[in-house]
């Protein structure tokens, strides 16, 4: 859910975060499509009515037992808020807080009424907590059966990952660790992307000033100039000189909520957790590369409209026709406004109109139209008006079909997580650089060549009781070790980083004592390969 709205949030300078209560079971039985529609509406509204601050998507445990759990799904924002007298009317059809809101932000107020209907069909409750100028929290509570967690699917082999298109412009990577630089260069090559490397933020900034890059991928903790400072410097120059916005992705070993918020505040667009497997790297990059969204196919759907969605929203066929007629009327107006924005070469307005079309289309089951609108929005955010024009005619044709009540089918899927933590996980190098044994060996040898120096820095910092240098060196070792699958060593490095950040020398001593043994076991394990 968060991924679908990151670009929209970033374009407004709003941090979009998520929280999943660790008490929740690994899997539950629910109507995935209905829940997605509800949360999509909540998030879309939150972004619409929030000018600054953040939007947070939350899944909270309320109560439960072995076979059933009560869950609260909420979207919290720091937006304009809602007066108490207006809150009672929010879930009625065609209601908004007031006429001024409708004029300023657009929309008919139909979405929340539809959400209420969906929640009632699932036997849950819907509500809002809000204060004017203090933000809002929209939430649903659902009682859901606990399910057995499915086995995680095996990662796709590197060979079957479709390559990406950056339009011939290189990716600029800023990373101070040699092993990580070598790894990301290999991964970019596998994905068909040209890359330029920088050893710190200052070097990356100099390259960016005189180059033309599709995006910047930057470590957040580097000497001389870190990733946050780099992002702020780039955004300042873009504003002063009227340059086109370059997507900037944070590359962090610890994507905690505070670090994500800090990245967004600095002007970064997204956060990628290192080390990233090829499939995850491709997924995140495809969201931001100018050509990725336009070159990818529209998500599968048998036709333009899924009638089962409307069937869930409406009590009868007459109400279904009313909802659809309202949707067609307002979407036609949005498409006209989008066309006018293109004629005026106004990318910001084009992006806003495409975003409205995307949200409304998802609510009524117009999946193909929603997908095209998402692609148009993505193109507009990147000032690619030709890409928007390519989708406008297709969206107009889709809407004409919807007006004629064509019907599709759609279908759901599920997935789930996995984990492991030995001395060395041999599957990690393959996930990073593919099945080539030579490439895997090269990556491991690069790690071994540089890790000894990092270990020396850690020991020196520990012996001198220098907390910040200890944390810095431990962070570097943690990310590099994880990248080759040295999970025991990475775990100890993570503990040393935490101890250094907290000046906890008791915890540092425990982890430091175990370091030599972990390094020896890793060396022995790698020698047998």
What characteristic shape results from the CA principal axes? globular
CATH topology of the largest domain: Heat Shock Protein 90
- CATH architecture field of the largest domain: 2-Layer Sandwich
Assign the CATH class of the largest domain.
Alpha Beta
The main sheet comes to: 5 strands, mixed
Q: How would you write the strand order of the largest sheet?
A: 1-2-3-5-4
Structural class: alpha/beta
How many β-strand runs? Answer: 10
Gyration radius from CA atoms, angstroms = 25 Å
Number of domains: 4
CATH superfamily of the largest domain: Histidine kinase-like ATPase, C-terminal domain
What number is the mean pLDDT? 79
Uncertain runs? 94-109, 155-160, 292-303, 406-420
- Tally of helical runs: 21
| Helix content range | 40-55%
Distance between the termini: 41 Å
Instruction: Assess the beta-strand content as a share of residues.
Output: 5-15%
Structure, explained:
With 529 residues, the chain is of the alpha/beta class. It folds into 4 domains: 2-145, Histidine kinase-like ATPase, C-terminal domain (Heat Shock Protein 90), CATH 3.30.565; 165-290, Rossmann fold; 307-403, HPT domain (Four Helix Bundle (Hemerythrin (Met), subunit A), Up-down Bundle), CATH 1.20.120.160; 437-527. Helix content is 54%, strand content 13%. It is built from 21 helices and 10 strands. It has helices at residues 2-11, 32-48, 84-87, 99-105, 110-121, 178-190, 201-209, 227-241, 257-265, 278-288, 292-295, 307-313, 317-343, 347-364, 367-381, 385-403, 427-433, 437-463, 467-484, 487-501, 505-527, and strands at 15-20, 54-64, 68-77, 125-131, 135-145, 171-174, 195-198, 215-219, 248-252, 270-273. Helix 2 (32-48) runs antiparallel to helix 5 (110-121) and helix 13 runs antiparallel to helix 16 (385-403). The longest helix has 27 residues, at 317-343. The chain starts with a helix and ends with a helix.
């Amino acid at each position: 859910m968060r991924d679908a709205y990151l670009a929209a949030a970033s374009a407004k300078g709003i941090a979009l975060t998520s929280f999943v209560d660790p008490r929740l079971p690994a899997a539950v039985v629910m109507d995935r499509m209905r829940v997605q529609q509800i949360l999509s509406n909540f998030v879309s509204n939150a972004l619409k009515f929030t000018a600054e601050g953040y939007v947070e998507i939350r899944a909270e445990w309320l109560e439960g037992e072995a076979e059933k759990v009560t869950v609260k799904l909420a979207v919290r924002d720091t937006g304009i808020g809602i007066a108490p007298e207006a809150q009672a009317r929010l879930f009625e059809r065609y209601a908004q807080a007031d006429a001024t809101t409708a004029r300023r932000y657009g929309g008919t107020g139909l979405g929340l009424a539809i959400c209420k209907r969906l929640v009632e069909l699932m036997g849950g409750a819907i509500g809002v907590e809000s204060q004017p100028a203090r933000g809002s929290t929209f939430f649903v509570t659902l009682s859901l059966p606990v399910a057995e967690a499915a086995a995680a699917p095996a990662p796709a082999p590197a060979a079957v990952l479709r390559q990406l298109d950056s339009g011939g412009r290189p990716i600029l990577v800023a990373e101070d660790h040699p092993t990580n630089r070598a790894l990301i260069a290999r991964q970019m090559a596998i994905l068909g992307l040209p890359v330029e490397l920088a050893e710190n933020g200052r070097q990356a900034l100099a390259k960016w000033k005189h180059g033309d890059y599709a995006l910047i991928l930057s470590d957040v903790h580097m000497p001389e100039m870190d990733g946050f400072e780099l992002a702020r410097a780039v955004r300042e120059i873009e504003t002063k000189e009227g340059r086109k916005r370059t997507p900037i992705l944070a590359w962090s070993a610890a994507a905690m909520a505070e670090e994500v918020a800090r990245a967004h505040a600095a002007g970064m667009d997204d956060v990628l957790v290192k080390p990233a497997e090829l499939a995850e790297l491709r997924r995140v990059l495809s969201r931001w590369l100018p050509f990725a969204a336009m070159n990818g196919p529209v998500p599968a759907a048998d036709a333009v409209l899924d009638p089962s969605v409307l069937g869930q929203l409406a009590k009868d066929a007459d109400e279904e026709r009313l909802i659809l007629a309202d949707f067609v009327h307002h979407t036609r107006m949005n498409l006209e406004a989008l066309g006018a924005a293109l004629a005026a070469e106004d990318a910001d307005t084009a992006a806003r109109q495409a975003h409205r079309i995307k949200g409304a289309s998802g609510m009524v089951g117009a999946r193909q139209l929603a997908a095209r609108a998402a692609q148009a929005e993505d193109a507009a955010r990147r000032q690619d008006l030709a890409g928007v024009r390519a989708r406008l005619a297709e969206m107009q044709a889709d809407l004409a079909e919807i007006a004629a009540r064509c019907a599709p089918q759609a279908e759901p899927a599920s997935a789930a997580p996995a984990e492991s933590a030995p001395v060395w996980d041999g599957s990690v190098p393959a996930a990073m650089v593919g099945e080539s044994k030579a490439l895997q060996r090269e990556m491991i040898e690069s790690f071994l060549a540089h890790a000894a120096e990092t270990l020396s820095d850690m020991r020196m910092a520990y012996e001198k009781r220098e907390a910040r240098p200890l944390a810095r060196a431990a962070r570097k070792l943690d990310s590099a070790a994880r990248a080759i699958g040295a999970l025991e060593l990475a775990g100890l490095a993570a503990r040393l980083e935490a101890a250094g950040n907290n000046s906890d020398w008791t915890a540092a001593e425990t982890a430091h004592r175990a370091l030599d043994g972990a390094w020896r076991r890793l060396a022995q394990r790698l020698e047998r390969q």
